[in-house]
Amino acid sequence: RVPLTIISGFLGAGKSTLIRRILTERHGYRIAVIMNEFGDTADIEAKTINVTSPDNPAEGSEEFLELANGCLCCSIKDSGVAAIEKLMQRKGAFDYILLETTGLADPGPIASIFWHNEEFSMGAGRDIHLDGVVCVVDAVFGRKASIYLWSADSSDDANGQIASSDVILLNKTDLVPESDLISTEEVLRQVNPAATIHRTVRGQIDLAHIIGIDAFSSRPLPGDSHRQESCQEDHDHSTHPHVDTINHYEIRGISSLQVTCPVLTDTALERLDEWIRTILWENRLVNDDRTTEGLEVLRCKGMFSKNSGERYVLQGVKHLYDIQEVKGSEDMGVPDVGKLVLIGKGLGEVVRRSLERLFVAQVDDIGQ
Amino acid sequence: MSTDTTACQSPQCINGNPASRLECPTCNKLGIKGSLFCGQECFKANWKNHKIIHDLATPRQPLLDDPSINKDGTFIGFPNFKYTGSLRPIYPLSQRRVVPPHIPRPDYADNGTPTSEVRKLGQPPRILSKDEQEKMRTVSRLAREVLDIAASHVRPGITTDYIDEIVHNAIIERNAYPSPLNYREFPKSVCTSVNEVICHGIPDQRKLIEGDIINIDVTLYYDGYHGDLNETYPVGRVDDDAKKVMRAARHSLDESIKICKPGALFRDLGKVIEPIARASGCAVVRQYTGHGINDLFHCSPNIPHYAKNKAVGTMKAGMCFTIEPMINLGTNWDLDHWPDKWTAVTIDGKPSAQFEETLLITDTGVEVLTAGKVREDLL
Fold first, then answer.
1. CATH code, domain carrying A93
2. What end-to-end distance do the CA atoms of chain A give, in Å?
3. Which CATH architecture has domain B96-378?
4. Are A201 and A282 part of one and the same domain?
5. What's the pLDDT score for residue B333?
6. N or C, which terminus of chain A has less Cβ within 10 Å?
7. Residue A233 confidence class, pLDDT cut points 50, 70, 90
8. Interface contact B298, partner A, CB < 8 A
9. What contacts A253, CB < 8 A, 6 or more positions away?
10. pLDDT of B251-268, one tens digit each?
11. Residue A269 pLDDT > 60, yes or no?
């Protein structure tokens, strides 16, 4: 499989520096770097990508992607993705693909396209596998960002970057005082508690943290629960109330919701699936008729256990989601409480209570 | 001809292109003047380049002398393409068929681009009003009539172009527009997919032979709405593999229709279709899907026919869409496209069958708008 990492971030945050570092350090690998314009492939006539040669990452060749015309109607395979695959067919598989999004682009829809494309994988060495979304954030602008970068008038795209990321690189930390860094991280964690945050200087980071992270897999992410615990220990609770209950922080209306899930019965899991697909596909709550203004889930992740022992992992980006059983999980011991993380807009108390009502209903089921 | 002062015509003349008098005899016969060479060696050395002039100048009768054109005037389109099976496009395609001006046309009829569809990208499936649902019933019924007429003509010896002519005429007789015509520049009024062609075959000059299977996909546009259906038919007697793949396609479609009702999930249709295909040793094509259909030919939702998909959407009363599983014999679901940019073929050349209906979700279940008679030959 060929892992694909989406690298997003505003202009000047340090994406190019990061990419150059990856190419240099992964000397000897064939890496394709694509400047994004995906999601709109119908309009593109000719697209080129840069492919590094294994021997000298500084040199590269430009390759042309052959894009089919729009006449392949009813074909749901994205033509841009098909073009990359065709290129690999002609010239051999890449070791990595890095897709750099343009400054304001929302990586969510792009991630959806590649994740969806995995439904066409042949099980051969050339299948593109969505590895994860990395966002480079400029620490210098940090909290000021809420004023500067994310202004009141809407361009949705910018916010999707934090919300849709699996890894956030808080870059240029050498230029910023510690207290500012802590508060910026706080804001980022509130918006996206599911992402791992790393502090970096000039994009320097152990590549194992950003490539090969398998963020869209159906394997449970032990790192998540670990992070939650360490988060509890590191904070000085006197300075700010803990993240679990109230989201003070939003970046332009984007916030997150974390809910603990009890061990589920079969019926409860079905109802949970119904709850999730209703909010993701129709932007409403299945058990609450009040119109929830501006409700939109951008990313969701979760882990649940059934009373029969199986564990399930939820992955979702935009409208696409998947709840998959973790293979071999029945032997993992006593079923554990689960967790659901939603990132998006309009995720207020109404949403939390709607979900909690689902779980209460389950207790009633068992009681019968 | 004044020859004495003409230099040797060979670009590689070893004698420095002196004045020459030896004339090429073929050029002489053809009446080409000035082909002079200084000597035999020069002439022979340059022969390969020189004889190109003879080819250019020879008056040709294309049908008699061009080896790649058959004696009846047909030829293989894209002769250098690596075809996956034995089927070839037999050109030339017939002239573009005319739709009388009094018949209302969809937006793409003139420039090829379905702008109305592009505008609606990303939107959820539309709920049709009662009036619109009635129009869908009408156009779907007409589409079924036309398909049945076309099917009655299927026999060895007729070309797929002939079927196109029948379909085109039957549609305009009903004052409707043949939806495929000029849709994203598709050149014909119906899709005819033979044997290893999965879908979107372009009608051409190839004659059907006994043993072929042919899918005829009819869509027409009437009173502002589209109706879409297709069936795969045997040409004369066909072998067991052909019967197997046709049965698998028909059966999987019929079973998937049974689960359609308000509240059912589009992603569950594949769960019904794929096991049926697998049980017959067949594979489900992944890249082409069923689609929403109403005043737009193709719109949301996308309906994959394979299991384990992430299709978005729940069925609701008033939604119209198609289910159209493409089933390949064997285990390969992958496909390739011919250079005509339309014809989709199996990667191993094995046959593929398909069936399609246009459906309307009612308050309690589903109505098959394009329903026709049961296919006795597939039972």
1. 3.40.50.300
2. 48
3. Alpha-Beta Complex (3.90)
4. no
5. 95
6. C
7. very low
8. yes
9. A159, A294, A345, A346
10. 999 999 999 999 999 999
11. yes
Q: How far apart are CA B34 and CA B57, in angstroms?
A: 14
Quick one: which of B249, B240, B258, B219 has its CA closest to B353? B249
ipTM attached to this prediction = 0.79
Query: CB within 8 A of A268, min separation 6: which ones?
Result: A358, A359, A361, A362, A365
Looking at the DSSP assignment, which residues form a beta bridge with residue B356?
B230
Domain co-membership, A97 together with A163? yes
Last residue of a domain, one of A154, A187, A209: A209
DSSP state of B303: E
Nearest-CA distance from A150 to chain B in Å? 25
A73 CA: distance to closest CA in chain B (Å): 8
Q: Tally helices (H) and strands (E) across chain A.
A: 9, 13
Q: Is the same domain home to A131 and A278? A: no
DSSP state of B58: S
Number of domains in chain A: 2
Domain edges within chain B? 1-57, 96-378
- Residues (pLDDT < 70) of chain B are 1-4, 58-64
Domain assignment present for A325 = yes
Instruction: Give yes or no: residues A76 and A192 share one domain.
Output: yes
d(Cα B312, Cα B301) in Å, to the nearest integer? 7
Range of the domain at A359: 254-367
Model pLDDT, residue A89: 81
pLDDT tens per residue across span B320-359? 999 999 999 999 999 999 989 899 999 999 999 999 999 9
CA atoms within 13 Å, Cβ hemisphere of B281: 9
Q: Could you tell me the pTM of the whole model?
A: 0.81
Q: Is B173 annotated among the ligand-binding residues?
A: no
Stronger pLDDT, B54 or A219, i.e. the higher one: B54
Rounded to whole angstroms, how far apart are CA atoms A204 and A14?
10
Asked if residue A224 has pLDDT above 70, the reply is no
Q: Do B288 and A320 touch (CB under 8 A)?
A: no
Do A275 and A203 reside in the same domain of the chain? no
Average pLDDT over all residues of chain A: 76
Same domain, A129 and A12: yes
Measured between beta carbons, the chain A residues lying within 8 angstroms of B338 are none
Helix (H, G, I), strand (E, B) or coil at A258: strand
Are A48 and A188 contained in the same domain? yes
Digit-coded pLDDT (tens) for A68-100:
544 444 466 777 787 788 778 877 888 888 888
Residue B207 forms beta bridges with which residues?
B159
Q: Which of A209, A235, A263 is the last residue of a domain?
A: A209
Look-up of token digits 């339309």: B342
Question: A338 - beta bridge partners?
Answer: A261
Q: Which of A41, A67, A76 to mutate to test the interface with B (most CBs of B within 10 A)?
A: A76
Q: How many CA atoms lie within 13 A of A140 on its CB side?
A: 10
Partners of residue B302 in chain A, C-beta under 8 Å: 76
Residue A328 lies in a domain: yes
CATH code of A356's domain: 3.30.1220.10
